Amino acid sequence: MTKKALITGITGQDGSYLAELLLEKGYDVHGIVRRSSSFNTERLDPIFQDPHDSDRHLFLHYGDLNDGVNLINLIREINPDEVYNLGAQSHVRVSFDQPVFTGDVTGIAAMRLLEAIRSAGVETKIYQASSSEMFGATPPPQAEDTPFYPRSPYGVAKVYAYWATKNYREAYGMFAVNGILFNHESPRRGETFVTRKVTRAVARIKAGLQPALHMGNLDAVRDWGYAPEYVEGMWRMLQHDTPQDFVLATGTAYSVKDFVRMAFEHADLEWEKYVKHDERYERPTEVDALIGDASKAERELGWVPKVLPPDLVKIMVDADIQQLDDERSGRKVRIDH
Ligand code: NDP
Ligand code: GDR
């Protein structure tokens, strides 16, 4: 029997890599896509299948995590074996501008989805995209048993979703797990997250298209891994014998300034000449240092990250230089989904 997976947030960085992985593994992959006035499925171009193709395995459905009836209907109709809840307002700085909206889509929507699964009465495993942001002000290293101390409306919302997932596991015996993932990046990372903002700017500065890069706090320390490896970890969590929560991280620690320096150096540019401070990118409360301990995932899931900085930085800078080149030479062609 072909396994069926449902992914919320399929159009995002992780959703697109996870969809690719599950298709490779022989799954039928269903994804929820928000209606948008412009195309929002670009990250799915590599796996796009024409809806008229009778042998397709990728199915996109209009929906929204804020629409509970839509979620129940989709779950009844699809009857998935696995659900991955990756949809969220995932930007920490933006969560200070839209705290209530973020609470709804990033926090309460997880409960909405769990309740939709319960009331639809389907047998499915569920993965909740929990975050290292939940640890917030608690000093590193952070592991599964580290206390939470969120420092943003986003972090607060993720803590709610974490406990909702754990509660449904305990209350109803659902196979519901939290993957507590530290920052993971790739050429598909949204352009306003710090790594991609930097690597994209490096490509544009190198090409003479951008004079400067305006940044917030350069002292924050993060544990940056490579997104395709993290989606493999998500899948492994749902294949484990028992539902448990896992941290995924590399255990490495670099500051934002380190990342900036590595990215500019890779393109033979001096970062001090271009980087300027702009307080609008600072947060009212910052998370100073996140460095994860993923030894449980290594022990129980055999999950070991291989791509670490500075290689990760090089992959992203090279991809942005290539993408800019393709755009300027007209080689990049958009697929109409
Ligand atoms: P992205 O921001 O790239 O993707 C978010 C996805 O959620 C997009 O597909 C977006 O759709 C969708 N979405 C937003 N609002 C809604 C809504 N109301 N209904 C349905 N879908 C919605 O995030 P990532 O891929 O980087 O992260 C995936 C998940 O993992 C998120 O929950 C994030 O919070 C969490 N996470 C991420 C980490 C990271 O380092 N990347 C680390 C830890 C956790 P659209 O394309 O239309 O905007
Ligand atoms: P983060 O990622 O908040 O860790 O959340 P982000 O890349 O936005 O910020 C990382 C650090 O860089 C500092 N910073 C800047 N950040 C942005 N975006 N833009 C800037 O100009 C800038 N200058 C400095 C930030 O202050 C911060 O310290 C990400 C998201 O993917 C979440 O969804 C996920 O849960 C966590 O990672 C783990």
TrEMBL record:
Keywords linked to the UniProt accession: Lyase, NADP
PANTHER family xrefs: GDP-MANNOSE 4,6 DEHYDRATASE (PTHR43715:SF1), GDP-MANNOSE 4,6-DEHYDRATASE (PTHR43715)
Organism, scientific name: Blastococcus tunisiensis
Similarity remark: Belongs to the NAD(P)-dependent epimerase/dehydratase family. GDP-mannose 4,6-dehydratase subfamily.
Essential cofactor(s): NADP(+)
Catalysed reactions, semicolon-separated: GDP-alpha-D-mannose = GDP-4-dehydro-alpha-D-rhamnose + H2O
NAD(P)-binding domain sequence ranges: 6-316
UniProt-recorded name of the protein: GDP-mannose 4,6-dehydratase
One MF annotation (Gene Ontology) recorded for this entry: NADP+ binding
GO process terms (BP): 'de novo' GDP-L-fucose biosynthetic process
Enzyme Commission numbers on file: 4.2.1.47
